[in-house]
# Entry
Amino acid sequence: MDLNLQGKTALVTGASRGIGAAIARELAREGVAVCLAARDRTKLDEVAGSIAAISGSNRTTFVACDLRAPAAVQAAVDTAVAAFGRLDILVNNAGATRRADFFNLSEEDWQDGFALKFHGYVRATRAGWPHLREAKGCIVNIVGVGSRAGSAEFTIGGAVNVALLNFTKAMADIGIKQGVRVNAINPGLIETERFGRNIERVSHDQGFSTREQAVQFLLASHGTTRVGRPEEIGWLTAYLASSKADFIQGCVIDIDGGATRAL
# Structure
């Protein structure tokens, strides 16, 4: 399917690894010029190099910054616009929250969890909105299925994620009038470095001796049959960013192998 994304530009946050890097690569394959934003300059350089190798294009730039800082978010948007002259697509993806027993989580853990993911998405949306409005562009918020139900060891992440779903709906309501599409994707278990850390946690807690035991435990707890791949999130993001999805507004799409059974 030709998504008609050739010549578009995108800013992808949290693009140095995992889902963010996969999204950036897929957009580049579709002809999108991509600005990558994250903290790790070395990793960003690696991802930019891989995009050039895959797409045969050097229409990629990056900005190494801490997106918890308001000025850094504005700088990321400014870098994308300065490099490519416009901004059509904003993919909010940066952010990880600490998993732990609620009573072992500090005030700083909670502040940090909201600072990067929730406030980072809010600030990037505010900074990017004038350019997206001019381009009749779109926002794709990468959130997570942890928003769908409470989980004892995911109190910060669940709270952040459900707040982002409400924020997505609210901005979509504004976007109807101003010509900006806003949607969200809820990934489930995806094979990333974060998933690897989850495997280590489960192995320690459950006393598993092999990785496969931990994987099967997690799959059973989710009621699914396999772990997702980062590129699958990239494919869906590219579709939502395209004109093929022009009538999709304020939508939250779970991509989790069927783990979410609630309406």
In short: The mean pLDDT is 93. Helices lie at 18-29, 41-55, 70-84, 107-135, 155-178, 193-206, 211-222, 230-241. The longest strand covers residues 181-187. The longest helix spans residues 107-135.
